[in-house]
Amino acid sequence: MIEDRVTRKEEQKLAKVVVVTSGKGGVGKTTTSAAFAAGLAVRGYKTVVIDFDVGLRNLDLIMGCERRVVYDLLNVIHGEGSLNQALIKDKRVSNLFILPASQTRDKDALSMEGVGEVISTLQESFDYIICDSPAGIEKGAMTAMYFADEALVVTNPEISSVRDSDRIIGMLASKTRRAEQNLPPVKEHLVITRYDPIRVNKGDMLSADDVHEILAISFLGVVPESKSVLAASNSGIPVTLTDDSDAGEAYFDMVDRFLGQDRPFRFMDVPKRSFLSRLFRTQ
Amino acid sequence: MKFLDFFRSKRPSSASIAKERLQIIVSHERRRPSTPDFLPSLQKDILEVVRKYIQINENQIKLSVDRNGDCEVLELNISLSDPGKK
To answer: Among A34, A165, B14, B61, which is least packed by CB within 10 angstroms?
Structure first.
């Protein structure tokens, strides 16, 4: 895969902090975090992805670096290891780093001050900090979102997921650093995963428009329900680093839109093959 | 098209039911948080101010928020009981 080198602006800019959150579990937060972080790194941005799911870490598995974890976020916070010792450099993409969560500690050990210090240190040397939030609305999730500048709200086209996302959107607007310090609000982006246009057409699944209308935040795109997501996680590769994956392409579209480029929305419609085109097909 | 609509209206798709249910529950849950957050502390503060002048106890003061469409009404009720009578 080609790395688009982006001419870095000379001025030292602080990294943008992006939380990947959803409220509900199992909707694809970690898949999205891994895919998005890898996508940003491929586009030439120095990116670190942090796992906030203390006790139930999985980002290391999805990123395929589980055997290289020595120190974790909590070790750094408690001064048992340095940040550089804990950061794992990805072997496929330069520019990409992983900061794993602790697997053994209690999730209350994650202190807001400690996380704040780690993030502000990382902000000096990175372009993007992706925070992979745990499910729920407890301390881990609140800590993951607190320092965010932008948020990817990962939602399945399914009622319980949409409702939980709505609660999370409310919290992004009230319980974050930006809200507390009266700064411009966290910029929220809607990411709809496990989307199946065929079922949407049949009326069995909420459409992207429906979900977008209900949640009323800016729409970043859909990720189609895809076998390649499981295949990628089976082998510990972010789906954006696999070849020929529709989900990977969908994530790249979103990364590019996130970076301010225009990309046509794909994977939202049933692949077209009308009655007439079938009748008069020439090939 | 009319023909299709006829069938659709007869049996609404599960997605449109989901959408309708979501719109109701989400709009209901969105307005809740503003109420309980500040009401107890507002009530406490008002109680303290009133107590500077009149001795009342906590249950003589009632505070509630009502909603009529887009209009919110904060209702404050302080009942002054006769001295000596409880």
So the answer is: B14
